[in-house]
Amino acid sequence: MKLGCLASVAGALLLACSPGPARPPFDLTGVQAGVRHKIEQQREKVNAEPLQASGWIRLAMVLDAHGLLTEAEDCYRAALERAPEDFRTLYNLASVLELQRIAPAERLALLDQASGSNPSYAPLACRLGKAHGELGALEEAEAAYLRAIQLDPTLALAHRSLGLLLLDADQAGRALPYLERAALLAPRDGPTHAALAQALRRSGDKERALAVGTKARLPESVDLPDPVRAQVYQLASSASDHFARARVAFQEGNTPEAIRLLKRAAQSTPDDPQIQLWLGRVHMREDPAEAARYFERALELKEDSTAAHLYLGELLLGSRGGKAVGHFERAVELQPNNFTARALLGQAYLQQADLNPALEAFEAAWEGYRAAPSSDARFPALLEAGVRILEQTGPSEVARLWRDRLDSMERP
Fold this sequence. Notes:
Oligomer: single chain
Shape: flat
Distance between the termini: 66 Å
Helix content: over 70%
CATH architecture of the largest domain: Alpha Horseshoe
């Protein structure tokens, strides 16, 4: 961008940040109590020293961390009025505008200015590419993405974004190497495989396009590793707000939003086994392999997590029954009265053709269920699966016994 153009945009930014009241005027109605308290504390510091950029920057980052993007934008602008060259503020304001999917020209000006003090920051180059692309400046966007790749060759998002840019410009041949590299760097990313399949199809390789396309329905798994933004997310209230909102989103059936919120929570608390467990849960249906990795990570952080052993064991049932047995045995060891764990253990034993331990596990599960029949609505389905295996592989009289027990149960 030319210096004259940059200066005019910067001037407009400063005008937009005209001094307002010392106390930032925004409404916190409906914000979680703990989060509201944290914001109010920082707002009081700004009120005490309204001319200090550091207070505005901190307040903006706290608001940003909790998803209050419009309020964060206002405070970043106030901080820029007081410290026009501050790299974090320039970059974070551009990022907040990007999250709101607005103002690509202003984002470009902010990022250009920020790059002057940190020209080797790969995420900034990647965001420059996105802003240029939204403005239709394809050559500049390509140059920015290439710069990001030069600075960090492992940046999957830069490879994918450049591939998509070229694909949209009807340059499938040039897009292929970048999309293939992105697929190697992010083998479980659905959008990458969808774009790669399209590029292969346009290049005439229909057979390979068909094979690659089988992964196109996987969820998006590529993030932009961004230490500056990570500093923002670390200010979230122990990730509890993101975690709570993610659980609500998942219960409402909005899995993509749940994944997004959980990943933000994981950025601020990467060693929280509960967040890793939930990341596994939300991936179970669409991407079992990715789910298994999250459950394994949860167990690395907390080996005695009964839930992680059960979920991982369920994923391994059938394909890797021996490993499933180990996880269910550990779950039973941790919670001897967990009859769901015993029913799953019985299934795993049957899949290994180990009849006697399977029957012992089912018997213990049955007794546990009879003592508290409403404590797990899944139990009838779990027992049904075991009975079906028995009917196919076990002694007929044993199978009939368990079928009779199953038929006698009160179904929901």
